[in-house]
């Protein structure tokens, strides 16, 4: 039994040391981060093209097919934009993969779970993610072969958004019949904002009008954007949640950076938290408990896993680079990332949606992070101290016994 126990605590020791080593190991350069993102996207590419990942995700989530393709395409777009003018091969591959993802979303199979009779067609979730991906593709290049079809679609979609914003009292429209989630509209408006960066400023006033409508309908209990809104007037139907607010904060800085900073200031007080120095996001505000659902994923001890993953990219968009790096390191460590050949995956590839969100968060920060910090440093002392304390407790009896044995042999 002594040897069994010795083997057991040796395994625990290796795990604790590995966790601490992984937590303090980061990217020493932007190129390291780019290379890591590429091998992660290699995994998702294989799963999408050879192992029917889109269909598998659709069986797990109501919007799984659209989500996984959109995130895959957006990650490639962010990679290309971060390497703009310096890596033609990256741009070429990124455009190819992003267009693949967009065409998958345009596929009739992607629309099956959405209602064509809604306005815009198939609802704002489907419409918004499709157009946001299209805006990022055109941000890379507006002159690639066959661009006319995509540019025309973008012009048309943005005009539809213009009509929605100027023709409705509420800032939000339905994702599904009878259901309105504000986060989906932020995706769509981010695409409209990108129109001004790509072409001209014709929709700038629309965006300003929309932001005012949003400000006028903040949750009166906390001053934040609600999780769900009334389909008629846009006022709060459900209070702020971590899963939706993390996504909103990933997109809002692209729309209105000052409003984003104000919303994050409120949000951080009750939703951003940590355990032993390890950052995480609460799904519900401090002092409130709730259960998980399809939006949040599992909620364990208040931790919203979906929101925690998405917040990596939100921190980058908010220019909170240290928080973004810390959150990514935690996810990279406790996601037990593994590499195989030229691919990388989290959780042994069993939850690819998490992979897609994490790599989108990583690529979102490529143009905002400085990558000048040391590759090895301690930044979670509480976690390290607890780990060392556990090791001391486990090994102390052996050390004492060994010392006594040594003293007896000397006598």
Task: Write a structural description.
- The chain is mainly alpha-helical and 411 residues long.
- The chain is built from 15 helices and eight strands.
- It has helices at 2-23, 30-50, 53-60, 64-82, 88-106, 123-140, 147-167, 182-198, 204-215, 242-255, 257-271, 305-317, 321-334, 352-364, 381-410; strands at residues 228-229, 236-238, 272-275, 278-281, 299-300, 303-304, 338-340, 343-345.
- A two-stranded antiparallel sheet has the order 1-2. A two-stranded antiparallel sheet has the order 3-4. A two-stranded antiparallel sheet has the order 5-6.
- It is globular.
- The two termini are 28 Å apart.
- The mean pLDDT is 90.
Provide a concise account of the structure shown.
The protein is about 60% helix and about 5% strand.
Largest sheet entry: 2 strands, antiparallel
- Spans of 5+ residues with little confidence (pLDDT < 50)? none
Count of runs of 4 or more consecutive helical residues: 15
Walk across the major sheet and give the strand order: 1-2
Proportion of β residues?
5-15%
Distance between the termini: 28 Å
| DSSP helix fraction | 55-70%
Radius of gyration: 24 Å
> Which class do the helix and strand fractions yield?
mainly alpha
């Amino acid at each position: 039994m002594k040897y069994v126990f010795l083997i057991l605590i040796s395994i625990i020791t290796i795990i604790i040391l590995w966790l601490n080593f992984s937590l303090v190991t980061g990217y020493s350069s932007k190129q390291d981060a780019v290379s890591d993102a590429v091998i992660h996207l290699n995994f998702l590419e294989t799963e999408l093209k050879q192992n029917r990942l889109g269909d598998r995700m659709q069986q797990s989530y109501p919007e799984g097919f659209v989500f996984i393709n959109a995130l895959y395409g957006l990650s490639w777009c962010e990679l290309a934009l971060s390497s703009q003018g310096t890596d033609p091969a990256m741009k070429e591959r990124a455009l190819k993969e992003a267009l693949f993802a967009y065409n998958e979303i345009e596929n009739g199979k992607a629309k099956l779970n959405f209602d064509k009779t809604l306005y815009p067609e198939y609802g704002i979730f489907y419409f918004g993610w499709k157009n946001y991906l299209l805006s990022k593709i055109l941000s890379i290049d507006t002159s690639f072969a066959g661009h006319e079809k995509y540019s025309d679609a973008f012009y048309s979609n943005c005009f539809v958004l213009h009509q929605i914003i100027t023709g409705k009292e509420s800032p939000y429209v339905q994702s599904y019949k009878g259901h309105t989630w504000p986060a989906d509209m932020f995706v769509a408006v981010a695409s409209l904002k990108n129109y001004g960066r790509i072409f001209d400023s014709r929709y700038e006033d629309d965006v300003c009008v929309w932001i005012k409508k949003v400000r006028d309908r903040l949750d009166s209990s906390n001053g934040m954007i609600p999780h769900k809104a009334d389909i008629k007037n846009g006022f709060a139907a459900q209070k702020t949640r971590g899963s939706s607010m993390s996504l909103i904060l990933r997109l809002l800085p692209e729309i209105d950076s000052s409003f984003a900073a104000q919303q994050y200031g409120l949000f951080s007080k009750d939703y951003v938290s940590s355990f032993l120095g390890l950052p995480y996001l609460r799904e519900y505000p401090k002092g409130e408990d709730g259960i998980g659902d399809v939006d949040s994923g599992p909620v364990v001890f208040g931790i919203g896993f979906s929101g925690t993953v998405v917040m990596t990219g939100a921190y980058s968009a908010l220019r909170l680079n240290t928080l973004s790096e810390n959150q990514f390191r935690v996810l990279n460590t406790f996601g037990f990332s593994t590499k195989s050949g030229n691919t990388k995956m989290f959780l042994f590839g069993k939850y690819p949606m998490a992979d897609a969100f994490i790599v989108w968060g990583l690529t979102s920060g490529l143009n905002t992070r400085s990558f000048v910090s040391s590759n090895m440093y301690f930044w979670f002392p509480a976690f390290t101290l607890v780990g060392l304390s556990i090791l001391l407790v486990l090994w102390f009896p052996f050390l004492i016994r060994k010392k006594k044995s040594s003293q007896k042999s000397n006598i």
